[in-house]
Amino acid sequence: MKTLDELKAFYTDELSADLKQLEARRKQIMQNSIIAIGVIVVLGLIAAGVILSAGGPPPVLIVIAIICVIIGAIAFKCIGSGFKLEFKQRIIGKIIHFLEPDLSYTPNGLIDKHTFQMSKLFTHHIDRYSGEDLVRGRVGKTDIMFSELHAEYKTTSGTRKNRRTEWHTIFKGLFFIADFNKDFQGQTLVLPDSAEKLFGGFGKMLQSWNIGRPDLVKLEDPEFEREFVVYGNDQVESRYILSTSLMRRILDFKNKSGTKVYLSFTGSKVFVAVPMNKNMFEPKYLSNLDDFNPVYHYYCDLAFAAGIVKDLNLNTRIWSKE
């Protein structure tokens, strides 16, 4: 990881000029958006006055307000069209190359649905799948890729006239894949353990009943088992993969991330899913872009993702592929 002084020098030498140009454009976008939204609000008030003076029902005001919000959002999107992509190409792309020269960046790219499902980390059927910010390449000796992903399923309720559709998140966050330099014969899943924390011994029984998962794997690390539950279809291989040192690294990584962590060892890959509520690499429309602090946060988010290689010690070739 680069030092803070190196990052500051990079910001001054490589990013500042681009950020000044993008900041000027951001201000213009915000000014044009305010004017457009103001016009929409005035027209909405005029329409509301006309309807009410003609004896229209007051609830129609809610409909007008909703229409104004929708039109305002469309106007903002049109006015700022292309800005987000340009920002990512000019700023995020450069930060990634500064972090690791052997990584490439595709702002509109994502890890495909088939690969996501291949991890077996999330078994619910997917009705809507999206993502962005695909990074791929090599960190040290290890091939990696990661992107932001959002997988959802839908439910419907009510009768035909009052039918309602709701969307539910299966996973939203950072999805990371790396070459583990080992061809696994089976599959090992490391999942957050909530059942045992909530129900103790009964929770262990619930874990063993987990339908759709391989067999429960018991390990000899009480601290690890308080945080994670492990499933695998090859008990010997699962214990072989999850060495004492790797379990310690997974625990440290979980504590570093400050959230739940999901891992899958499948094929010759390790899949890591880290739930996040934020979009990591979006430009901040309400903040000054020509400032070091946002650059620092973008860099830290990228370093967190690429740093999984170091966190899990993936560059140390303990095994060789068969």
The main sheet comes to: 9 strands, antiparallel
The assigned structural class equals alpha+beta
Distance between the termini: 32 Å
Q: What is the tally of helical segments?
A: 11
- Strand arrangement, major sheet: 1-2-3-4-9-8-5-7-6
Integer average pLDDT: 86
Based on Cα principal axes, name the global outline: flat
Tell me what the structure shows.
The protein is α+β, with helices and mostly antiparallel strands. The chain is built from 11 helices and 9 strands. The protein has helices at 4-53, 60-79, 83-99, 113-118, 195-199, 201-208, 222-227, 235-241, 244-257, 292-306, 308-311, and strands spanning 103-106, 128-139, 142-157, 164-179, 188-192, 215-217, 228-232, 262-266, 269-275. Helix 1 packs antiparallel against helix 2 (60-79) and helix 3 (83-99) crosses helix 10 (292-306).
What is the topological layout?
Layout: H1 4-53, H2 60-79, H3 83-99, E1 103-106, H4 113-118, E2 128-139, E3 142-157, E4 164-179, E5 188-192, H5 195-199, H6 201-208, E6 215-217, H7 222-227, E7 228-232, H8 235-241, H9 244-257, E8 262-266, E9 269-275, H10 292-306, H11 308-311
Antiparallel strand pairs: 1-2, 2-3, 3-4, 4-9, 5-7, 5-8, 6-7, 8-9
Q: Short description, anyone?
A:
By secondary structure, the protein is of the alpha+beta class.
Feature tags:
9-stranded antiparallel β-sheet; 9 strands; 11 helices; 322 residues; 47% helix; single chain; alpha+beta; flat
